[in-house]
Every structure is written in C-alpha cells, then in structure tokens.
Amino acid sequence: MRVPRKTEGGGHTLKDILLSLFSSIVLLSAIFSLEEKKLLYSVALFSAFLTLFSVYYFYLGVEFLGVVQLLVYAGGVTVLMLFSLMLAPEVDEKLSIDRRRGLLSLLVLPPIMYWATRLGSRSNFPLLDTKDISRNISDHYVLVLLISLLIVSVIISISSILGGEKEK
User: Fold this and answer.
1) Closest listed residue to residue 62, CA positions, set 9, 130, 11, 8
2) I need a labelling partner for 62 at 20 to 30 A (CA). Which of 81, 96, 98, 164 fits?
3) How far apart are CA 149 and CA 61, in angstroms?
4) How many CB atoms lie within 10 A of CB 167?
5) CA torsion angle for 22, 117, 31, 74 (degrees, to 10)?
6) How far apart are CA 154 and CA 46, in angstroms?
7) DSSP collapsed to 3 states, 69-137
8) Which domain holds residue 51?
9) Closest CA to 39 of 103, 83, 70, 1
10) Chain mean pLDDT for the chain
11) What are the DSSP calls for 30-55, one per residue?
C-alpha cells in the first residue's frame, strides 16, 4: 500500500483530504459499533462499518474483493447476527463497557500507525499489484465463494425451519 505523497507546496491534495475524512468516518462507525450498548444498534453500526470498508477495495481497484466484502461480510454476517439476536431470549441488562480500555487504545493506536507507515515507506518489500491479486482470487476462489453462499443459505433455511417449529 502506498503512502500518500505530498504536493510540492507541502500540503495534501484534495484526494488525500477526502480519503482521510472517509477513513475517519469508517473508524468512527467501527468505534461506535463497539461502544453502543444496545445490541441491535451495534449490529447496524457494524454493518455500516463493513459496507463502508468495502469502498476501500473499490478505491484500490480490487472490485472482486469489494463485492465479496459486501456480499459475504456486510450481507451474510450481518444477517446471521440479526437472526441470532432475534432467536435469542431478550436480555434487559445493558452491556458494561470499560472506558479505560477505549481511551488506552486511542492513545496507543495513533503512534503505532504512524510508526508503521513510516517503516513501510522505507522498506524494500515489493509492492503487490492488486489487479493480479483480484484476478487470482476470481480465477481460483469463486468456487469457495459459491460454497460459502450455499452454506449460508442452508443455515438460514434450517434456522427458519427450527424457528417455525419453536413457535408451535
């Protein structure tokens, strides 16, 4: 992954600024999905995070991974979470969240990310072409995607059958 280059004037381009704003929205949706006390709202925010995260794949030119992210994770995983919430008995107690952990992670994560981007720009690792990765995945792993979609549909069918028997 390339580190954004600065322009000659020392500032960032509009594309860099918009990408930074979008990244902050993605991170905020992830943080809010963890901080939300009601599970249904937390799943909705997690779904928003997964959907917004798939935009990165489209931005990088790896459309296949973006579609897989949308279908399997933002679609399938979110639906399974919602099914488990609907089938589970209702719990009235709210989740207790330790705020110190969140504060510690907000203090520790930015220096680590800064250090990782600086180290990554100085490394001699070969840059991988995302188009080649996308072609390789679409050539070899489409069968795995189809099997996973089949398994998800079987799980949904079984849960609906068992849910129908449970009501009787």
Assistant:
1) 130
2) 81
3) 24
4) 5
5) 60
6) 24
7) HHHHHHHHHHHHHHHHHHHCCCCCCCCCCCHHHHHHHHHHHHHHHHHHHHHHHHCCCCCCCHHHHHHHH
8) 14-90+130-167
9) 83
10) 76
11) HHHHHH-SSHHHHHHHHHHHHHHHHH
Measured in whole angstroms, the distance separating CA 37 from the mean position of its chain's CA atoms is 20
Task: Name the burial class of residue 168, with classes exposed (0-12), middle (13-18) and buried (19+) by CB atoms within 10 angstroms of its CB.
Answer: exposed
Handedness of CA 97, 98, 100, 101 (dihedral sign): negative
Q: Please give the single-letter amino acid code of residue 118.
A: R
The reply to whether 24 falls in a domain is: yes
**For residue 50, is it within any domain?**
yes
pLDDT tens digits, 53-85: 888 888 888 888 888 888 888 888 888 888 888
Instruction: Among 66-80, 88-102, 108-122, name the one with the lowest average pLDDT.
Output: 88-102
Query: 41, 119 in Cβ contact below 8 A?
Result: no
Q: Is residue 115 domain-resident?
A: no
* Dist. CA 142–CA 64, nearest whole Å: 10
Residues, the chain? 168
